[in-house]
Amino acid sequence: MSSFPTKTDDLVRRLRRMRILVIHPDDEERATLVAHLKRIGCQVDMVWPAPDSLPDYADVVLFLLGPNRDANTVSWMANAGDIARIAIISFETPEILNALERLHVHGVLSKPIRIFGVLAALTTAIGLARHEATLRTRVRSLDETLKARRKIEQAVALLSESKGIDEQSAYKRLRDKSQNSQRSIGEIADAIIAANDV
Amino acid sequence: MKETVKVGVLFSQTGSMAVTETAHINGVLLACEEINEGGGIRGRQIEPILMNPEGDDRKYAEMATDLLVNYGVKTIFGCCLSTSRKAVLPLIERFDGVLFYPSVYEGFEYSPNVIYGGAVPNQIVPPLLEYVFEHHGRSISLIGSDTLYAREINRIVKEFLSESGGDVVAEVYLPFSAETGEIRAAIAQCGVDQTNAVLSTMVGGDSVALYDLYAESGLREKSVPIASLTTTETELMKVGRGARSGHISIASYFASVETPQNPTFVSAFQEKYGVNAGPSVYSEVGYSLVHFYANAARLNGKVDTRSVLQALSGSVFKAPGGDLSIDMDTNHFTLRPHIGLSRTDGTFDVVWDSPKVAAPDPYLVAYDRSITTRVAG
Q1: What CATH number is attached to the domain comprising B326?
Q2: Cross-referenced Gene3D superfamilies, in alphabetical order (chain B) (predicted)?
Q3: According to the model, what pLDDT value does residue A68 have?
Q4: ∠ at Cα B301 (B297, B303), nearest 5°?
């Protein structure tokens, strides 16, 4: 029977909810790019020169990466977090290529900007940035779990002894409690150890 | 004698799309003739240079280059399938010409060098589905030629159905020039007891074959219609008489629409091509685009790309199907969709006219995917 695309995988509609910031001098090329971004239904803001920090609303940044160092400040990168970053380049010199790698962009548009390819660069970059954000979150929680491991082992031992269950079930209880209470498994373990000390 | 204005005419006269693309040519050539009889473009005759790419995308690209470079053509009327348009697009941009594209297509494209004359999904999919829901039901089977167009239309249709409590019974894609057996098998997949309507995105000669074979099926016996965005008088005339009637098509033009300017167009068309030749939307859009172009060129007497594109802005043409105006943000047209019910004589009874014109939304920025709000469930 029918297999519908789930709502989450509607790339284009997701794109519409994105706020895009274009960091590029006010010229004809920017006008062409912005007109097309609006044509495909995105919300766009423009700024030049590059700001020191990004406005909170930005989900995607398209920024000019030119050879001119002053106008090119990328200090906004410091608070760019999970934002999808697409560089606009007019040279492929080693210096620019190094900068691209260092800045860790999710996509590149080359000048002169052609309409064809903008949509694909956007969706790809957004997809990558999302994936990266997911991985980052996962890594953070793994880190924490790793740090808390000794405490967790201790808590599991206490729990299995006091409740008379095996260690696997004890761990499962910890994990379920963590999931249900929105607290990390380490915090739950801490609480159990503290309660046991009393 | 003034120098002529050469324009390219780039459509396949052979291959599986010949039936449809010939209809485009007929509309384009009729308009050229009318313009020339009326004194041309400020006294210069239009000289159409007809090329036949034989349904081969590479030839579309080669011939477009030939027209733009060797013939010095600035304007091409051409392409029907999206793959051929995509092949021509970079060349039209590189040599800075204008492509007038006369076919219905899937949207999601913009080039400053292309004028898109056909309907895009937001203009025709919702009203067609609304009509099918109201008159036949919400269980739909999808049969299409395996094109970009078919897949995109079906993606939109499925989204629509899921938002509106409908369902997809079968979804089949067939190769070009599909075998009889393949088409029969596709029809058989549409469960007689489950399907309320078959939405066809078949194109050209394959569309004709679908209707012919459908006539032998149980679906036909139960009066389950085929609903189509691509079947017009042109294709219907090629279908066997007994297989023609009772199917639904949506288009921005049918030969039977009632506008003041339509009778003149129909009689001119039939005088040139014979009474069994339509016209259909394929011819009407081709015809209208040529007039649109000529009117723009007459404004300042210049036929270079920049002048023509500037002159097109804001102009309105009284096309046989109704007023055409161009949206210069997207280079697509505002048009009025109609729904036709096919008849045994190969024409359509217009059973629904859109009460308002539909603005183009090629990137589906603002369209409403659900029709439950508009059709009582």
Answers
A1: 3.40.50.2300
A2: 3.40.50.2300
A3: 67
A4: 55
Nearest to A2 among B93, B167, B366 (CB): B167
pLDDT single digits (tens) A45-103:
999 988 888 888 899 999 998 776 655 567 788 777 789 999 999 888 888 888 888 88
Q: Sign of the C-alpha dihedral, residues B358, B362, A35, B101?
A: negative
Are A41 and B89 inside 8 Å of each other by CB? no
Average pLDDT value over all residues in chain B: 93
Tell me what the mean pLDDT of segment B12-20 comes to.
Answer: 93
Residue B242 in domain: yes
Q: Name the minimum distance, in Å, from the CA of B276 to any CA of chain A.
A: 40
User: Which pair of tokens denotes residue B140?
Assistant: 């739909």
User: Distance, in angstroms, between B102 CA and closest chain A CA?
Assistant: 21
A115 touches chain B (CB under 8 A): yes
Residue B363 lies in a domain: no
* Cβ contacts from A onto B, under 8 A: 43
Q: How far is CA A69 from CA A51, A95, B13, B182, B315, in A?
A: 14, 11, 57, 62, 47
Q: Which among A5, A10, A40 has the least Cβ separation from residue B363? A: A40
Is residue B143 domain-shared with residue B83, that is, in the same domain?
no
- Domain residues for B342? 122-256+337-353
Q: Let me know whether B273 and B178 are in one domain.
A: no
Q: Which helix (H) or strand (E) holds B319?
A: strand B316-319
Together in a domain, B219 and B151 = yes
Q: What is the pTM of this model?
A: 0.82
Q: Both B181 and B241 in a single domain?
A: yes
The dihedrals phi and psi of B127, each to the nearest 5 degrees, come to -65, -35
